[in-house]
Amino acid sequence: MTSFELVSFIFAAAFLQVTTFGMLAFYRHWQVYQEVKRSLYGFDQRLAAEPVYKESLPISIPDKQPTWIGSRKFQVAKKEYEDASQSICSFHLVPTDGDPLPNFKPGQFLTFELPVRNPVSKELKKVIRCYSLSDRPGLDHYRVSIKRSVPPTEPPNLPAGLGSNYFHDNVDVGDFLDVRSPGGHFFMEASNQPAVLIAGGIGITPMLSMLNTYLQSKSSREIWLFYGVRNSTEHAMKRHLEALAKEHSNFRLYICYSKPLPEDSFGSDYQHKGYAGITLLRLTLPLKLFQFYICGPRQMMESIVPSLEKWGVPDESIHYEAFGPASLAKTKPRKPIATDEQTDAEPITVTFSKSGKSISWDESSGSLLELAERNGVEVESGCRAGGCGGCQTTIEAGEIDYTQEPDFDPDPGSCLLCISRPKRNLTLIA
């Protein structure tokens, strides 16, 4: 054997060895990947059958919706439960004046003025509460689907939801309600861009409005829904969602049970055991530029929204609404408010005159409503988005700045605490 032949043999043996090890490593990686995929029911078939969507014009949703001023009287035409545990109840509302209902943007809410009796003092007071519209615009009625709230575990000693329990226990067919016009900044934009809806618990309600609006319009827009609940007892609108998935090839449905019951059927009742989190999204979604719409409890939002940002989803493609005792903390610092009278070196003090509390405020403090709640100042609130007027508070001295344009027009000399921050030292009658 010549030297050239020996060298060639050595190189060939080395190449064969590297190739063999490489193929083994790839095979092991592929086995792990397939094992993860098998945890998602129907994953292989769904991706293999990826349909080709034809172009269509987006549905037309006017930017400016005709609305009414103040409260309007509605009557409950129908009341029905939407889940096995009867914790979610839908109320169909028709206007008593017989006038047509204005359209709304899918995802918006209604604001209610409820005469609720305090469970402790027995005093009757007006309570402002907001609930998402759970059906499409263009019908002869509005629908809201409300979950009965139980007392939260944190913070302790808080009562059960006054508004939701009032609806479940006191509102029946034939009753009358005072309702303000639809509002809110969380809604699905008219577009052909693929959309991903992520809902946790009762966060499904605005998603139902979005789904019913776009799928009923025969839009070919690609829509994915990831809906997370604990098990079948909390699974709302089950038959309706399954029917939509069967009828519309451009709609993909993924139900996630975090704690399925023994009788819950994997692959039939739910497609994923666990939470509707970022791992599931990354394994399931194809590589496309999606618009993400997220609604759920705060813990879910604080996990998913930052994870989407880390994944590289642009800020303008992430739309969310949180519910519960506090709104979702922003992941990015707010833009400082520039003032001529007060510099960064001079701290801002917010005084709540009725409560006798003076509190320092800085850029990390959030809204005036968040500041009040963290410091034990009792303030009524509803939508937490500037739409209901529930947190309207009189300004005794000072000036505020709004973080967004309010939907509700506050009285002169008042402000909405949920979307405002102080520009300088401020005194509020609260």
Q: What does the secondary structure layout of this molecule look like, with pairings?
A:
Blueprint: H1 3-38, H2 43-48, E1 72-81, E2 88-95, E3 109-117, E4 124-132, E5 142-147, H3 162-170, E6 176-183, E7 195-200, H4 204-216, E8 223-229, H5 238-247, E9 251-257, E10 272-273, H6 278-284, E11 291-297, H7 298-311, E12 318-323, E13 348-352, E14 357-361, H8 368-374, E15 392-397, E16 400-402, E17 414-416, E18 420-422, E19 426-428
Parallel strand pairs: 7-8, 7-11, 8-9, 9-10, 11-12, 13-19
Antiparallel strand pairs: 1-2, 1-6, 2-5, 3-4, 3-6, 13-14, 15-17, 15-19, 16-18
Order of SSEs, N→C? HHEEEEEHEEHEHEEHEHEEEHEEEEE
CATH class of the largest domain: Alpha Beta
The CATH topology annotation of the largest domain reads as Rossmann fold
User: What coarse outline follows from CA principal-axis ratios?
Assistant: globular
Task: Report the CATH superfamily of the largest domain.
Answer: Nucleotide-binding domain of ferredoxin-NADP reductase (FNR) module
Describe the structure in your own words.
It is a single chain. Mean pLDDT is about 85; it is low at about 30-60 and about 330-345. The protein folds into three domains: about 70-185, Translation factors (Elongation Factor Tu (Ef-tu), domain 3, Beta Barrel), CATH 2.40.30; about 190-325, Nucleotide-binding domain of ferredoxin-NADP reductase (FNR) module (Rossmann fold); about 350-430, Beta-grasp domain (Ubiquitin-like (UB roll)), CATH 3.10.20.30. It is α/β, with parallel strands linked by helices and about 425 residues long. The protein has eight helices and 19 strands.
